[in-house]
Amino acid sequence: MSRGNLLCGIVVAVELLLTSGPLALAQSTAQPAQDGMLRNGPPIWDANRDGVYTCDEWKSFAERLFASADRNHDGKLDPSEFVTVQKAEASLAEADFGYFDENQDGKITRKEFVEKPNAFILRFDRNGDCRVTGDEIRAANAPKGPQGPAERPRDRFH
Fold first, then answer.
1. Nearby residues of 122 by Cβ (< 8 Å), 6 or more positions away
2. How many CB atoms lie within 10 A of CB 95?
3. What are the pLDDT digits (tens) for 137-151?
């Protein structure tokens, strides 16, 4: 083995140890957790790109998404067609077929899909106006204060 290959191997090994060992764990817990719904960036269905996500924009996007996923054009999505939905939008990547299949018949109708409340809007729409603004997203992701009274050290022993 050449000296260059050995050095390269050592560098790679050190990088792996640093990124997967306890040090990486300590670093990842020190930073605030990213909201799961925003992990892959903002939703793509903001039709007018104004940074406000509305129920109407979602329904319009859901209509188009349903039409593209319904490969056999029978007006229903089966589990294999639903995979297309999960791949189309990052916030739907972990969507549950059963959530949309309201009557649990193994098929999702257009109405079941389009009329189902959007999880992103449910999560972030604080004032119930069917619009999610940047302020609402920031407020939902703001660090929370202590939950309940702080424990004083003497309370544990007396």
1. none
2. 15
3. 888 888 766 655 555
Angular region, 75: left φ>0, alpha ψ -120 to 50, beta rest: left
Q: Which helix (DSSP H) or strand (DSSP E) does residue 84 occupy?
A: helix 79-88
Query: In whole angstroms, what is the distance from residue 47 CA to residue 51 CA?
Result: 9
pLDDT in tens, 73-105: 999 999 999 999 999 887 788 889 999 999 999
| Helix H or strand E encompassing 115 | helix 110-115
In one-letter notation, the amino acid at residue 45 is W
Residue 13, token pair as written in the block: 């090994």
Residue 138 token pair: 């920031």
17 backbone dihedrals φ, ψ, rounded to 5°: -65, -40
Report pTM: 0.64
